[in-house]
Fold Bifunctional protein GlmU.
Amino acid sequence: MVPVVGHQAPEVEKAIRAQFPEAALRFALQKEQRGTADAVRSAEGALKDFSGRVLILYGDVPLLRRETLEALVAAHEAGKGPLSLVATTLEDPTGYGRVLREGGKVTRIVEHKDCTPAQRAVRECNAGIYLVESSFLWRALAEIRPQNAQGEYYLTDLVEMAARQGPVASIDADATETAGVNDRVELAARARVMQQRINERHMRAGVTLQDPATTFIDEDVTVGADTELGPLVTLAAGTVVGRNVTIGQGSVLTASFVADGTAIKPYSVFEEAKVGERCIIGPFSRLRPGTELAEEVHLGNFVETKKAVIGKGSKANHLAYLGDAKIGSKVNVGAGTITCNYDGVNKHLTELGDGVFIGSDTQLVAPVSVGDGAYVGAGTTVTKNVPPGSLAVSRSPQVNKEGWVARKKERQG
C-alpha cells in the first residue's frame, strides 16, 4: 500500500503507521498539491518494480466495502481494458466530475467546473476509484497536461486516454458508500453509517441491542449469540464477548475478554481485563489492566481491580480496591477493604488463600499474605502474614465512657 501524503506529511504518516502497525507501507510525498494525477505520479517511485494492476482510491472514503472493490476487479477482468472505474448516481451532482458516455460506453470524465450546461445535467458521477494496468498508468500520467480551469493535473484525464485504447469498464456504487469526508460534520455522518452497519451485522448474528442508535461497537469486536447490550454500551479495541452475556447501560469494555454467561451491570468499565464464565460484575465496577477473574466471581458496586487475579467463586460486593493481588477461590472481601500496594516507590503483592474471609474496612499492607481459611476481623490493618486458619485482629480496644455527653453539655453551659 502506498499512501500519498502532502500537507502535514509527517503527522499524517505517523497517524497512518499507528493505525496500521503491521501493514507493508511505502509512503510517497506530493511536494506541491497540483492535482490528483500529480498525486498518483508521486507514487511511481514506490511502485517502480511493480507490474500489474494498481488500485487507486481516495483516503477519505471510509464506507467503501470490500464487495465493491471485488466487483470492480471482476468488471475489469471481464472488460479487458487498461482502466476501470467506480461511478455513483447522485440526486444533486453539484461539485462532482461527470461520467460521460457515447453509445453506453464510458468515454471521459469532466470535472464540474469544466462542464457545459448539458454535461452538468448528467447525474452519473465519478467516485474517484480506479483499477489501472501499471503498463498503461505511468506512461499515460506522463502525458497529462493541466488543460483545465484550475491549472491542475487531473487523474480523470486517464479515462479518455484509456477509452481510446480499449473499453473502460464501470460499476455503480451507492452514493453513501463513496461519500468523502471534508469536515467533522461529515466525519460524524460517515461514522453513524459505519456504526449502523456494524450493529446490524451483530443483530443479524443473534445479538440483542436494546438501543442500536446509542450502542458503539468497534469493527474488530466479537460478540456471541444471545448476548444482550443495554443502551450507551461501548465495546472497543478488539473486545471479545461470549454467548449469553448481559452488559448493562453505560458500560465500556476496552480490549477485554468476557466469557459465556457473565452479567455486567450498568456503568461498569473494563480495560484489558479477562472475565470468566458466569461472573456478576457491577454496577459501577472498574476492572483495570491485568485483572483476571475465574468463574463465578462477584464484584459489586464501586469495586476497582488492577493486576488482580481472582479465583473461582470469590466475592467483593461493595466498595473495595484490589490492586496487585492474587486471590484464591471462595474468598469473601468485605466492604471498604483495600490493598495498600504502593510504598511510594514500588508496587507490592497481596496474596489471599482459598476460603479467606476479610472483614469490612480492612487494610492489607503489601507485601503480605493471608493463608487458606484465615479470617481477618473488621477494621484490621494487616501488616504481617496471617497463617492458614488463623484470626487476625488489630483494632484498638473499645472504651465506653458513660455519662460523657451530659458532662460535655454541662461544661459548655
Summary: The two ends are 87 Å apart (CA to CA). The helical segments are 9-19, 36-41, 66-79, 117-120, 134-143, 157-163, 184-204, 404-411.
